[in-house]
Recover the amino acids of this structure.
């Protein structure tokens, strides 16, 4: 694909379908029981990944500059 924006609507629809399937599989009572586990694991993942964020963003900037060397950004 040359233009990633062209597939964005299809990807969004896929996410909606995935959430719908999760909703069919899990009852509200089961989700309520799992809430502590999900929140704890989600928080642990955020804490584990947060130190990596500056390096990832810097790498993305460098990659963008390599791909489009003449492009300047305002702001």
């Amino acid at each position: 694909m040359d233009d990633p924006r062209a597939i964005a609507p299809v990807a969004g629809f896929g996410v909606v379908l995935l959430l719908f399937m999760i909703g069919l599989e899990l009852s509200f009572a089961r989700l309520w029981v799992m809430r502590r586990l999900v929140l704890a694991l989600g928080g642990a993942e955020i804490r584990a990944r947060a130190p990596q964020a500056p390096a990832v963003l810097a790498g993305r900037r460098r990659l963008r500059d390599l791909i489009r060397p003449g492009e300047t950004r305002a702001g």
Summary: The radius of gyration is 19 Å. Residues 65 and 73 are 11 Å apart (CA to CA). The chain is about 75% helix and 0% strand.
